[in-house]
Amino acid sequence: MTTVNWDASELNALAADLGKAGYEATRKAQLAVAKAAFDVEAQAKEIAPVKTGALKASIGVGISSDGLTAEVGPTVEYGPEVEYGTSRMAPRAYLGPALDVVGPSFAAAIEQIGGEILS
């Protein structure tokens, strides 16, 4: 009778490494999201037009419970009108330009995390 022996120890080690990489990648992604969100907030506050200071003061960050998504924006009701303009007022964008400044470094951070997983 012929027998075949299978050694799955390397597969088990690979599975453990992938599981660990997934956790580490998620944690690094959460940090990248938070950093980018707070960087966008700071940049938007720097760019935001100031009449009374209420718009600038109302710009804040909300991060999801899983830490993988964030929302940056003002809480004053006229924030979108300032960003996009109206029929009577030209736009004075502050969020879009802030995202343009921070976006490339965020994309680079996520690419680096992906590269670490694959290497």
TrEMBL record:
The lineage of its organism: Bacteria, Bacillati, Actinomycetota, Actinomycetes, Propionibacteriales. This is HK97 gp10 family phage protein. It comes from Brooklawnia cerclae. It holds the Pfam family HK97-gp10_like. It comes from the Bacteria. NCBIfam families: phge_HK97_gp10 (TIGR01725). InterPro entries: HK97-gp10_tail (IPR010064).
